[in-house]
Design goal:
With about 230 residues, the chain is an alpha/beta fold. It is built from seven helices and ten strands. The longest helix has 18 residues. The structure holds adenosine-5'-triphosphate. The site of adenosine-5'-triphosphate (ATP) has 12 residues, from strand 1, strand 2 and helix 1. Keywords: ATP-binding, Lipoprotein, Nucleotide-binding, Transport.
C-alpha cells in the first residue's frame, strides 16, 4: 500500500534564504519550519517583504534555500536539478501568478495545453483542456485570444493551465491582486472547487483579508519568519 497520504504535501525544515544584493545580504526567510498536509487549503498573509513569494518559489523549486530542506510529498526539492527538477515541477506543482502570464499570440486552449505539449500524456491533451475550460466556465472562449478576455477570465485560463498536468499542489501568488473584489471571489471559488473535487493542496499568497478570513488554514508571516499557523478545528 502506498503511504502517499501519510507524507506531508510540503515540509519545510529550518529554511533560510539569503539574497545577496551588491554588498548587502538580505534574509528573505529566517529558519522557517512549516508542514502542509495533502488536501489542505492554505492562505499565506503578511506585510510586504515578509517572504511570502520567496516561500512559494522555494516550494516550487524556482529558488533554492541557502540552508535547510524543502520536501514535497517526500521529495527533497532542493536536491533536484535540470530535467529532474522540471519533471518534479510538471508532476507536482501548478503555479498561478498575479499577472496571469498567458501567451498573447496563442488561443485560450493553446495556452492551457502549453505545459503538456512536449510531454507524452495518458490523456488526450485537447479533451483534457476542454474539460478544464468547462470547469472554469470558459469553454465558449476556447478559440479567443487572451487580449479578448477580461482579467478574471484570463486568470481562469491560467488556472486551467496550472491544472493540465494534474499537479498535487497549486501555488498561487496573489491570484486576485489584479482583479476587482467580486471577480477575485470567483477565482477563489474555483480554487476551492478544485481543492474539494481533486483534493489538490492549494497554497495562496494574499493581501485580501476577506479571502484569508474564510481559509481553513492560515499562515502568518513577518520579516522572513512564520509568526503563526491557524487551523480551523
Ligand atoms: N530576487 C531577489 N533578489 C534580492 N532580494 C530579494 C529577491 N526576492 C526577494 N528579495 C527580498 O526578500 C524579501 C522578501 O521578499 P518577498 O518577495 O518574498 O516578500 P513578500 O512577502 O512576497 O512581499 P510582497 O507582499 O511585497 O510581494 C524582501 O525584502 C525582498 O526585497
Amino acid at each position: 500500500m502506498s503511504n502517499f497520504n501519510l507524507l506531508p504535501a510540503v515540509k519545510i525544515k529550518d529554511v533560510t534564504k539569503i539574497y545577496k544584493n551588491q554588498k548587502e545580504e538580505e534574509a528573505a526567510l529566517k529558519s522557517v519550519y512549516l508542514e502542509i498536509w495533502p488536501g489542505e487549503f492554505v492562505t499565506v498573509q503578511g506585510p510586504s517583504g515578509a517572504g511570502k513569494t520567496t516561500l512559494l518559489n522555494i516550494i516550487a523549486g524556482f529558488e533554492r534555500p541557502t540552508r535547510g530542506e524543502v520536501e514535497v510529498f517526500g521529495i527533497n526539492v532542493s536536491s533536484l536539478k535540470g530535467k529532474k527538477l522540471a519533471d518534479f515541477r510538471y508532476s507536482y506543482i501548478g503555479f498561478v501568478f498575479q499577472q496571469f502570464h498567458l501567451i498573447p499570440s496563442l488561443t485560450v486552449i493553446e495556452n492551457v495545453i502549453i505545459p503538456v505539449l512536449p510531454r507524452r500524456t495518458e490523456f488526450n491533451k485537447y479533451e483534457k483542456a476542454r474539460l478544464l475550460l468547462k470547469e472554469v466556465g470558459l469553454l465558449s472562449k476556447e478559440n479567443s485570444l487572451p487580449g479578448e478576455l477580461s482579467g478574471g477570465e484570463q486568470q481562469r485560463v491560467a488556472i486551467a493551465r496550472a491544472l493540465i498536468s494534474n499537479p498535487r499542489i497549486i501555488l498561487a501568488d496573489e491570484p486576485t491582486g489584479n482583479l476587482d473584489t467580486s471577480t477575485g471571489e470567483k477565482i477563489i471559488e474555483i480554487l476551492k472547487f478544485i481543492n474539494r473535487e481533486y483534493k489538490t493542496t492549494i497554497i495562496i499568497v494574499t493581501h485580501n483579508e476577506e479571502i484569508a478570513k474564510k481559509s481553513p488554514t492560515k499562515v502568518f508571516m513577518k520579516d522572513g519568519r512564520i509568526l503563526e499557523v491557524l487551523r480551523n478545528a
